[in-house]
Task: inverse folding
C-alpha cells in the first residue's frame, strides 16, 4: 500500500470520526423550537407564570448569544417583549453557573399591575444568575393609573451584585430628561457612595446617595438632592401628567428606602422636598374671574407672587402617594394656605383663602378623581369681600362679605385645617 493511499485512508477515517462526533453532538443540541419550549418551561418553573415565546435563536461561534423573540406572559395585563438578547459566558456553564455578560431588552411593555405576580419569586427564581449589565430601549412602563411612559437605559453591576453605574433616559421628553448615578467609593461609615445627577425640564437635581446595611441585614438607602430651576409643568408633562401650576422650582430633597433587595428599595422609596417656585402660575383657573362671576367662570390663569410648600412621596403597592403640606400661595391681596393628598387617582385637598391680609378667611375643598375633582368655596362671601375691600378696607371687607353672603345663600364651610397644616391638593 502506498504512502498516499495510507494517508488518504487515515484522512477518511478522521473525517468519518469527526462527522460521527458532530452528528452525535448535533443530536444533543436542541432545535430553535425545542429551545423555545425549554425557555417557556424554565420561566414557569422559576417564576410561576406561563410564558409564550414566538421564536428562539442561538449561536455558539464568535460571540455566544441566545435571542428570544416576541414573548409575552399569560396574565390579565401581559408583559410583552419584542426581543431579548442574552450574551452568556460558556465556561461557567460547565460549573453549573449562569453568568450573563449582557442582557439586551428591546421593545418591552411592562404593566405595573403585572409585576405583583413576581414580587416574592423574582429574587429566588433568579438568585443563581450572575448579571453584569443590562441595556434596554423602547421599554414602556404602564403605571398603576394606566399611564404609559417609554424609557431607555443602561445598568452595569460590580462583582458584588450592586450597581456600578445606572443611566436612565426619557427619550421622548422635550427638553430631555435623564438620571445618572455612579458608584464612588465608600463613606467613613462603610456605606457605598453614589454620585447622582438628574437633568430635565430645563433644570437639574444633583446630589449623592448612600447604600448601607442595617443591623438586621437589610439594605438602607439615604440621600440628598438639590433641585434647581426645574420647570414644574414640563417635568410632569415629561411623564404624561398635567400640572396644575407652572414655574421654576428649587429647594432640597431627601431620599430614604429600605429593603432586602434592590427591587424592595425601589418599592419603598420615600422622598421629602421643601420647594420654592418662582414665576408661578395656577394653570386653567382664573381667580379674579371666578370671584367676579361667583364661581361660574374660571377659565384662564392666575399669576402668583409666591408659591412654596413641602412635597412628600411614597411608593406603595397601589402606585405613588403624594402629600403636599405647608402650601402657601400669594396672589395680590389673596393668600391661599392648605394641604392635599393625591393617591390612587383621587385628590383630597382643603385649605383657606385669606382676603385683605387675613381680615376674612374663606375655606375651600377639592375632592374627587384627579381628572375632574369637585371644587367647593363660598363664592358669594368671597365676592362680597372683594367689593367691600374696594370700597373701604378693613370694615368694608367684613361688611361686603356679609352682603355677598346674603345674595348667594349660606356659604359652605368645610372643616378648617389646623394652623400648622397647610392645604392639600
Result:
Amino acid at each position: 500500500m502506498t504512502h498516499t493511499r495510507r494517508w488518504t485512508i487515515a484522512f477518511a477515517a478522521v473525517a468519518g470520526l469527526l462527522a460521527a462526533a458532530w452528528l452525535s453532538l448535533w443530536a444533543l443540541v436542541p432545535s430553535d423550537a425545542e429551545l423555545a419550549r425549554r425557555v417557556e418551561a424554565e420561566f414557569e418553573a422559576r417564576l410561576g407564570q406561563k410564558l409564550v415565546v414566538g421564536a428562539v435563536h442561538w449561536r455558539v461561534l464568535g460571540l455566544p448569544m441566545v435571542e428570544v423573540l416576541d414573548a409575552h406572559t399569560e396574565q390579565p395585563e401581559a408583559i410583552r417583549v419584542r426581543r431579548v438578547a442574552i450574551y452568556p459566558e460558556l465556561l461557567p456553564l460547565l460549573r453549573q453557573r449562569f453568568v450573563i455578560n449582557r442582557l439586551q431588552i428591546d421593545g418591552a411593555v411592562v404593566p405595573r399591575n403585572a409585576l405583583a405576580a413576581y414580587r416574592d419569586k423574582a429574587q429566588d427564581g433568579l438568585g443563581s444568575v450572575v448579571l453584569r449589565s443590562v441595556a434596554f430601549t423602547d421599554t414602556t412602563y404602564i403605571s398603576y393609573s394606566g399611564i404609559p411612559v417609554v424609557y431607555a437605559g443602561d445598568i452595569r453591576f460590580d462583582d458584588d451584585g450592586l450597581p456600578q453605574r445606572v443611566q436612565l433616559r426619557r427619550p421622548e421628553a422635550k427638553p430631555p430628561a435623564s438620571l445618572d448615578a455612579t458608584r464612588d467609593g465608600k463613606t467613613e461609615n462603610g456605606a457605598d457612595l453614589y454620585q447622582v445627577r438628574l437633568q430635565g425640564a430645563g433644570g437639574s437635581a444633583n446630589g449623592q446617595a448612600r447604600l448601607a446595611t442595617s443591623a438586621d441585614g437589610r439594605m438602607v438607602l439615604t440621600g440628598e438632592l438639590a433641585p434647581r430651576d426645574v420647570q414644574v409643568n414640563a417635568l410632569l408633562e415629561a411623564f404624561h401628567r398635567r400640572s396644575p401650576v407652572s414655574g421654576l422650582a428649587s429647594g432640597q430633597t431627601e431620599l430614604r428606602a429600605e429593603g432586602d433587595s434592590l427591587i424592595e428599595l425601589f418599592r419603598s422609596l420615600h422622598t421629602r422636598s421643601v420647594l420654592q417656585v418662582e414665576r408661578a402660575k395656577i394653570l386653567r383657573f382664573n381667580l379674579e374671574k371666578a370671584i367676579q362671576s361667583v364661581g361660574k367662570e374660571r377659565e384662564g390663569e392666575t399669576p402668583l407672587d409666591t408659591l412654596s410648600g413641602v412635597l412628600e412621596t411614597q411608593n406603595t403597592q397601589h402606585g405613588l402617594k403624594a402629600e403636599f403640606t405647608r402650601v402657601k400661595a400669594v396672589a395680590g391681596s389673596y393668600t391661599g394656605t392648605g394641604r392635599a393628598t393625591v393617591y390612587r387617582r383621587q385628590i383630597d385637598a382643603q385649605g383657606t383663602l385669606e382676603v385683605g391680609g387675613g381680615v376674612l378667611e374663606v375655606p375651600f375643598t377639592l375632592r374627587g378623581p384627579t381628572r375632574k375633582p369637585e371644587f367647593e368655596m363660598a363664592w358669594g362671601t368671597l365676592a362680597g369681600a372683594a367689593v367691600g375691600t374696594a370700597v373701604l378696607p378693613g370694615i368694608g371687607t367684613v361688611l361686603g362679605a356679609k352682603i355677598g353672603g346674603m345674595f348667594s345663600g349660606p356659604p359652605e364651610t368645610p372643616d378648617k385645617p389646623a394652623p400648622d397644616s397647610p392645604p392639600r391638593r
